[in-house]
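User: What would this chain look like folded?
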Amino acid sequence: MPSPAGSTSGSPGGAIKRSGITQSLRPTTIKQLRQATQAHADADWVIDDMEIGPVTVVAMVIKISPQATNCMYDLDDGTGTIQARHWVDSTRANDDNTISEQMYVRVMGNLKSFGNSRFINANHIRPVADEHEPYYHTLEACTVTMIMQRGPPPRPGQEFKPPVNGKANGTSAYTAQGGTAVAQDKYAHLPPIQRNIINFILSQPNHTEGVHIAAIARAAGGNAHAISAALDSLMDDGHVYTTCDENHFDVSV
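Assistant: Here's the prediction, encoded as structure tokens.
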């Protein structure tokens, strides 16, 4: 599937299959990064049972440690502290020259670990120009986390259906409602995870605008790679297609 981060992906006819979830930029707090888990050294990082890839944080620079090939920043966003390492690129303008201590910055990169410490391997860092950006970022991180935990918020006139605790056989509060009917419809021959994906998309009002892959993953159950592979198969078979962008999906009629 195509990736919003611009990397090679496993769209129909592509050579490499990568999870759209783990290639999407996720806003987080530093506390979330400190609490992220990793099954092994080469595995993706996980926050709240959801695999993550590139992340972005907004925090104050507490200390700057310039070195020959990189610059280390000690960051604090009020939820915790973490270091960010930004490598110096002599062929491009150096953003590090515009950053000073006690300044708020936005950092984008990937969470890494070395020994017993973890840090952000930053590919972009810039000063915060708007004083409201730290507050906006915190609200955005909370919103994204709640959507991944509970699904998208109800639209006007739609009744809110709270998720059930836990998942049985990879189902959720959304997919369980139509489980009996699915066995009798044209999707009955599909694997359970693919049926769950289709059921969830069809259960969303105005789903023709597309349903985000993160909401699909949370509702259908399974890890990010399993969801990505299931969506690839559904697209290959013509059951689903992308809508407004490569992370939103709808069911083919």
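The mean pLDDT is 78. If you want, I can go into more detail on any region.
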